[in-house]
Amino acid sequence: KGPPEPWKCSQCLGDGTYRFWDCFRRPLFCTSCCRENHGTHPFHQVDQWTGTHFQECSLRLAGLILHLG
User: Taxonomically, which superkingdom (predicted)?
Assistant: First the structure.
């Protein structure tokens, strides 16, 4: 299933390309808001819009770096 129209980031209204299965209503996020909002939830399942469909990916692809310790 494709993104809702218009497919804008739920935070900044930029291009929404990420969605999270663990979040209520599965809002879309741009890359920056994805990192900002989910940096504290690194194990949420994330999908990225490829242009034709959503594909499972990781927050690492959005640039999230998880520091341990």
Answer: Eukaryota
